[in-house]
Amino acid sequence: MKKQASIQPPKMPAALTEFKELEDDDYFIHACIFSHTDFPLFNTDRLTCEQVKFQNVRFTDKELPQLNLTDAIFESCDLSNADLSNAVIHRTVFKDCKLTGVNFSDATLRNVVFENCHCHYISFGFADLKQTKFLHSALRQGDFFEMKQSQLQFQQCDLEAVNFTGTELDGIDLTTSTFDELVITPEMLKGCIITSTQAASFVSAFGMLVKYE
Fold first, then answer.
1. pLDDT in tens, 95-133
2. How far is CA 98 from CA 10, 116, 121, in A?
3. Which of 7, 51, 195, 212 has a CA between 20 and 30 Å from the CA of residue 16?
4. Where would I find the H helices in 12-160?
5. What's the pTM?
6. Residue 140 CB coordination number (10 Å)
7. InterPro entries of this UniProt entry (predicted)?
């Protein structure tokens, strides 16, 4: 089994200033903090944020395709149904956040952690995830359709009815997570790590029936 590489944390400055406003057509946000507010509506699909912290910020239904995030922290934020398709996200942490229905399709994630997050119906279709961890998070009916992955981790997560169709599961350890059913492509299951109890959940994918004696 391949050894999991350490996930790099966000690189943040010692002090952050409160965000005020963008000037003209400058869609670059750097070294600041958003706190207890609604995220402003920017007329752009290429917003860049570096070394930014978001605390109790609402992104509900925001459309931010092609967002570029580097060294960012989201704490207790609500991103429900936000469009982050084609985003590029590096060294970012989502902690205690609500991510129900967020669209990460075609996104690129590197060194990203989702900790204690509600991620029901989240979508990573056709995304590229490397060194990404889901910890103590609920991803019921999440979509990981035809996704590229390397060093993807799930630790103590709720994965009920998650869709992994078309995604290689080699190296993914599911032993600490819970599910009664997963949607998978059988020939892409090789190298996936499961418990003997979880194995029964995969039987239906092979068109088999288990006879208990």
1. 999 999 999 999 999 999 999 999 999 999 999 999 999
2. 20, 9, 11
3. 7
4. none
5. 0.92
6. 17
7. 5peptide_repeat (IPR001646), PA_immunity-related (IPR052949)
